[in-house]
Amino acid sequence: MAMDETGSPYLKIRNLTKIFGDFTALKNISLDVQMSEFVCFLGPSGCGKTTLLRAIAGLDIQTAGTIEQNGRDISALPPAERDFGIVFQSYALFPNLTVYKNIAYGLENRKMRPDRIKARVAELLDMVGLADQAEKYPAQLSGGEQQRVALSRAIATSPGLLLLDEPLSALDAKVRIFLRQEIKDLQRRLGVTTIMVTHDQEEALTMADRIVVMDHGVIEQVGAPEEIYGAPATSFVANFIGTMNFISGSVEAKDAVRLGDTVLHCTTDGLAAGASVTVAIRPEDIDAEEIDAAGDGDGNGNGNGNGNLIDVEVTKMEFLGSFYRATLGSPALGEQGARADFSVNLVRRKNIEPGTKLTVRFPARYIRIYPGG
Amino acid sequence: MSDAAIAAPKIKAKISRDDWIMRGCMGVIGIFLAMFVLLPLYTMMSKSFENKAGDFIGLTNYLEYFSTPALFLSAVNSLYISIFGTFLVLGTAFVYAYALTRTCMPFKVFFKLVAVIPLLTPSLLAGISLVYWFGKQGAAKELLFGELIYGPIGIIIGSSYWVFPHALMIVITALSIADARLYEAAISLRTKPLKVFFTVTLPGCKYGLISAGFVVFTLIFTDFGVPKVIGGNFNMLATDIYKQVIGQQNFQMGAVVSVVLLIPAVIAFSVDRIVQKKQVAQLSSRAVPYVPKPERRRDMIMLAFCSLVAFLILCMIGMAQYAALIKFWPYNLELTLGNYDFDLANGGGWESYFNSIRMSLYTAVVGTIIIFFGAYLVEKGRGFAIGRNAFHAVAMLPLAVPGMALGLAYIFFFNNPANPFNFLYGTMGILVVVTVTHFYTVSHLTAVTALKQIDPEFESVAASLKAPFYRTFARITIPVCLPAILDISMYLFLNAMTTVSAVVFLYSTDTTLASVAVLNMDDQGELPFAAAMAMMIAYTCAGARILHVILTRGITKSTQAWRER
How many CB pairs (< 8 A) connect A and B? Predict the structure, then answer.
């Protein structure tokens, strides 16, 4: 894990373990979060992402391990002695208080002068576009509005750390997409260090500066969205993010793998020849465009001559609106074949339908290899 | 970085000021509970192993108990009356509840109202009314064909009357959580109605029925009022305790009988708790509520059945009211208010009525504060799971302790001059304490249920906003839970007004209560006064109920803006 060049990280998590009875929810987690960074904890339910968030908040204190925030050891502190604002999936807005009172709740606890509270709440309401809703109760607002009130309440006291626990999960798809951008903009404007827990990969990919992919209480990969999507470090990440074809094969040579009768060129991460591997490629990376007889029209400069071509037969076509997902059958691709995304345009031009025979390319730079069959 | 499971020193959470305050408060209420439940019970149990001089004599008292047929017989009597009564009440309550929840029978509101009447009256009232109906000079004694009402028949009828609403409410709850989609699925599979009933309806409310069964059993098994008035020479355990203690001053044998009474009650209670835990996962939150469709024949049969039950309930309360208003049964049937001139009676004057009001108000106020705050600390406290679980367990205990046993235990515990709380003995204070304790569990559960329904993250958010817990408790928790808080205080008030069992051992000449006065008037043969006093309790409880409805409506209306749906 590389340290930021600016010095010590804002949040420093070391060897964090959380045990509930005989279930280990977090196993020896270490992680750094930089100042003003937007980090997403992403993973399937039960992977420990919420447990990690709650440990950072002090709501469920870890069994072992330390957390430092801004140089201060907060490992054992109760939530009230830490510095964070939090938004829950349920928003947890106080139902009997108006929007105004909800946002002012934390300010009043700081013994702020009433006129300054008023100004601050007005400023926040303005920022989230709810200036005219101040006297309404949460139940009278839409889900998206409630969400924005919860966000305003969390940042009202200008905390150093903003924690978001699945903040968009309870909303309709359209509102969710709109609020993604809004939260991201707000975060960037305020520069507040933010951690968001989500199980929605699209949300993580669009919002985060860095994504922490978790499974079974361990961190599988930490990286920028492009990195996580383009170069998944483990087969779990590859499978969890986006759609991925997995094909069993073996290492043929230093820079080639064998799938049945077919040999594909790609990097093999130094695995010994003969080792069984899983070859992974995303459906959108399988290429069926303009492949000439020589088979090296991709211009990717890998210069391996044969161009990683495979002869396939389309066995199934699934229409998904803006593109088709085709299932390709070939002895090389194993029993379930491989899925490939073809644009509507391409399908029309080449007249692709079930039964069509094609030659497709598995571009070397998009192939990833994971040890084990 | 090490790969070991725990690669860092363990973290011990720092306990915040809030945590200390909360644990301190919980400790205080916990000690209150332990002192007023556990210690008295312990004292009583140890008394049952002592002779009159206070020496430990092992099981001698128990041997005497089980070898004296007269004593042992009442245990058998209690058992068979309770089992018989349980099936009778459960059957009736099930059909009645079914009619209210699953049919389109007309006048449902009326039938619901009539069914709660017994809750407003002391169980003694049922006995008094039965004397007027079927006693030696009863209005309808011919209906018994020469059998005597004083005995098992009277006890079963009287008990059935007053425990009916308790059973009914549980069964209604169980029946009203039906998922309509199950019925739609059954109909679309062309299932016959009878089969639907046995495969969908009954399994759906199985746990509710079992729970109601245990509640009814315990209520009848431990009731004192009905067998006292109408039992005649037919002995039951609860009346035996009274006879041993008040009649023969044999406290040790009273303790033995109390323990014998306690055991089945504790067993019934434990089984009920286990059953209720299973009920939790019964219904998903996405279920579609069942809406009955009219079906003339069924609706009319149900109307006939409910009318009969409602008629019987009205006959009971009606006769008590009539008896309270006539001059001299059965010879002079002129109407009079003279029976309300309680100061002429020997059992206790108007003073006892006002004592009851005072006692019930204190109980409602003090009890609600302690119980709700205690439940809050258990439900919303942070960490300290052992302490919170222990508190919850002790809070569940009073439900299993029969009032007679609790009352006797208090005599042993508080009448001891060495007890620093001895000063409570014979005061209004001990009556309030014993009543709060006696009815602690149901109120505690009501509070816990209400607290569970509010978002568990309120406390987390409040902590992140640096609000001390008491501020959030006062500004958020109490307003949100206000309807439940009102329910609890109403429950405590009604029970304090009508209870006899625990307080019968603990009142003094300055603190006689209306319900005890009914008992004493009946003992003295002043039945018209007893009926009038029982009716005074009924009016008061009815008034309190109406006030409760108005207050609840008011709250709902003024908070409509923020309460969802």
Answer: 130
Domains of chain A in start order, with CATH, are 11-239 (3.40.50.300), 249-371 (2.40.50.100)
pTM of model > 0.95 = no
Per-residue pLDDT of chain B (565 residues; tens, 9 = 90+): 334 456 678 888 888 888 899 999 999 999 998 889 999 999 999 999 988 888 888 888 899 888 888 888 999 999 999 999 999 999 999 999 999 999 999 999 999 999 999 999 999 999 999 999 998 888 888 888 888 889 999 999 999 999 999 999 989 988 887 778 888 888 899 989 889 889 888 888 888 888 889 889 999 999 999 999 999 889 999 999 999 898 888 888 999 999 998 888 888 888 887 877 776 555 555 567 788 889 999 999 999 999 999 999 999 999 999 999 988 788 888 888 888 988 888 777 899 999 999 999 999 999 999 999 999 999 988 878 888 888 988 898 898 889 999 999 999 999 988 888 889 898 999 999 999 999 999 999 999 989 988 888 999 999 999 999 999 999 999 999 999 999 999 999 999 999 998 899 999 989 999 999 999 999 888 899 999 999 999 999 999 999 999 999 998 888 877 775 4
Q: How far is A63 from chain B (nearest CA, A)?
A: 6
Q: Six-digit token pair at B339? A: 């029976």
Q: In what order do the strands lie in the sheet with A323-329?
A: A338-343, A323-329, A309-319, A357-361
Amino acid at B514: A
Best of B1, B461, B469, B563 to mutate (most A CBs within 10 Å, chain A): B461
Within B285-349, residue ranges assigned H as helices are 296-325
DSSP summary character for residue B12? -
Per-residue DSSP letter, B151: T
CB spacing of B16 vs A95 below 8 angstroms = no
φ/ψ of A86, rounded to 5, equals -135, 145
The nearest CA of chain B is from the CA of A367 a distance in Å of 31
- 409-468 in chain B: CB under 8 A from chain A: 455, 457-458, 460-468
Residue B261's CB is within 10 A of a number of other CB atoms, namely 25
Give the nearest partner residue to B14 out of A77, A95, A154, using CB atoms: A77
